[in-house]
Every structure is written in C-alpha cells, then in structure tokens.
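Dear support,

I submitted the protein below through the web form. The confirmation email said the job was done, but the results page showed an empty box. After a refresh the structure appeared. I'm attaching both so you can tell me whether what I see now is the final result or a partial one.
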Amino acid sequence: MADVSDLRERVVGEVDAVFLFSPSAAFHERFATLDDTNLDVVVVAPDNGVGADPFVELPLEFENVADRIRFGLEGALEGNLIAEGDEIACATRIFDEEIDTLTCVRVNSFSRSGIYSLFAESRAEPSVVRNVLELAIELGKKGQKGKPVGALFIVGDAGKVMNKSRPLSYNPFEKSHVHVGDAIVNVMVKEFTRLDGAFVISDSGKIVSAYRYLEPAAEGVDIPKGLGARHMAGGAITRDTNAIAVVLSESDGMVRAFKAGEIVLEVDPEEY
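What the results page shows now:
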C-alpha cells in the first residue's frame, strides 16, 4: 500500500477536498497534519472518534461503496462544506478493514439520491431510522424461521399515520412502551411479521402499533414494476404525511426506504 504522504501528493493538486471514510486515528492524524497544502480534510464516519472538524456523521457503514460516498457528499453539501462543481478525493475501504482505495468524484456528476435527507431531515431521530433499517436488513438476511418474509415499517409522524390507517387485528403494542432497537423487542417484531399490516413507529422509536392497514390515496405514486402493495402503500403514506417507510420485499429480499413518495435508499441485506 502506498504511503500516506505519497497518496496525498497524488491528489492535492487536482481536488478541492479529501474525504476520509471511517479512518483510523493514526491514518487521520498522519493525513490531516501534512502541512504542504491547505486542502480541506473531511471525515465521514459513524462516530467522530478521531475528533475531526469538519465531520459528517455516517448512520450506516453502507457496504455499497457508491452509497457510502454519495451519503458523505450529500451531507457535506447540506452542511456547506463543499459546493457544486468541486472535485473530491474519497479515501475509503473496499477489501480491507483499513482505507485501501482512492476515487475522485466531481460533485455535480452524480444524482442526489436523498439518502442524507432520509436520516438528517426526517421527523424521526436518525438513530431510530438506523434501528429500523438494521431490523429490516436482519429480517431480510434470516427471514422468519428460514423463510423469506415481507415487512412494512412506517417511521415518524405516527399520529397522522394512525389517522390514515385502520387496524387489521388487535394491537399487541397498545399499552406497551417498547422501542425499536431493543434486542428483545426486535424478537417480538420478527414474530409479528408473520401477519399482514404495517408497523407504526413514533419519532422517538416507540412502537405505536402493528397490523395497520394503510389507507392513503395511491394515485400519482410511481413505483418500479414488480413491486407490490407494500411498496405502493409505503410510498403513498410518505407522500401524505411526514413519515418515512422502510419496506422489506418478500419477493426479491431487498430493503427499500421511501420519503415524500420516492424511493431514496435500496439495500441488499446480503451485502451487510
């Protein structure tokens, strides 16, 4: 592997900033303290363990490198750390636990997906969005007793979502105060995925209800061919409320997130 100094010299004359994705403390220190240029060094990671400034929080590791880089760039754009037209050198990992790959991206050369908005601009707390996604991904990997399952989670703006839905059966969470992300609660949720209906989760992660039949108008909601009622309902409810929807497809096993009626994230559980 090239020395950090060599890596830095290859890019400083060509780019406007360097993004380090989840660097070790030693790598960040060696890279950021090189004083031959005023190049901005931005850390993108799940937590700021290296004490970096500037820093963009990465709510998921995103094994898909394109998603990882897109999230970091969108977050930096929203935080005015970079501007349209800038060229960014992104140092990240693909094959190793440490950073092993460098790629350059011009900021206006990729489409804005809304991934950053899903976490940073939703009513629900970012940790809640992350917990729901991780639950859906785990379900996608393991299924229900080894068999593929589908699931629909509506996250945030729970009051309005409840007003635009009706119960299909009793609500096992009606008098409870349990939150998604708790290991025992997640086991319960997995059992309840055997039955139809959506889970409704509050901004703070409280599970408000299961077995909800969503009743938003579906006109004008455009979903890819091959996706069914869960995706249509999830897309429609996020258009009519400030909620987001996380859908696990029983047919293809993919996890998709909707915001404002649009798919903003698509994850293959087998890549995590």
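Response: this is the final, complete result; the empty box was a page-load delay. The longest helix spans residues 126-142.
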